[in-house]
Amino acid sequence: MTTPDTVRPAPRAFWADARFLLGIALIVASVAGVWLVVASARQTAPVFAAARTIVPGQTVTAQDLRVVDVALGAAGETYVSPASLEPGAIATRTILEGELVPQGAMGDADAGTTTSVVIRTAGDVSAAVGAGSVVEVWAAPTEAGGEVGKPRILVPSATVVSVTRDDAVVSGEDVSLEVVIPRADVAATLAALSDDSSLSVVPVAGESR
Predict the structure, then answer these.
(1) Which of 73-77, 127-131, 164-168 has maximum average pLDDT?
(2) Whole-prediction pTM value?
(3) DSSP labels, the chain
């Protein structure tokens, strides 16, 4: 009686080993990628945030800013940092207190298209008007006999820097405002100030500090 030969398993194909090794490599790469993403998210960089509300045309100094460490990744380059703040730079838009300062909100002083003036209003202003508010400035000319003429819009869009009320005035109507206006409106504004026109400010609908 003959004994059958012992059946031996076929040798493992090389392609099967290569597929196994490739799977291991993919797992390792995936874990490494996740680790890099997590590590990058934990890395912070110093950038500036506004220490107070900054208005368009204002020269921005270190006193107007505070340094915060935030995790922004590649987006960090789009914000102003201690290394990128240019001396004499001005704000090109309103930057609210606490807001990170974008590079796009800063400009060269030579490119400034606005300036600030101080006006005194004919009456009190809304309590909603404060630093950073966008307002319309209206003027009503003083006509013969002291009568006030028809009001017109003097500056369609001005940004309030500060509001000062004279507490010594019982009526509470002695209010002065420092406002930022386009340079194109400076001449008309100065003319209204010099001819004692009655000035008023009206908050622009939809605009907030």
Answers:
(1) 127-131
(2) 0.61
(3) -PPPPPPPPPPPPHHHHHHHHHHHHHHHHHHHHHHHHHHHHH--EEEEEESS-B-TTPBP-GGGEEEEEE--GGGGGGB--TTTPPTT-EESS-B-TT-B-BGGGEE-GGG--EEEEEEEBSS---TT--TT-EEEEEEE-B-GGG-B---EEEEEEEEEEEEEE-TT-TTS--EEEEEEEEGGGHHHHHHHHHTT-EEEEEEPTT---
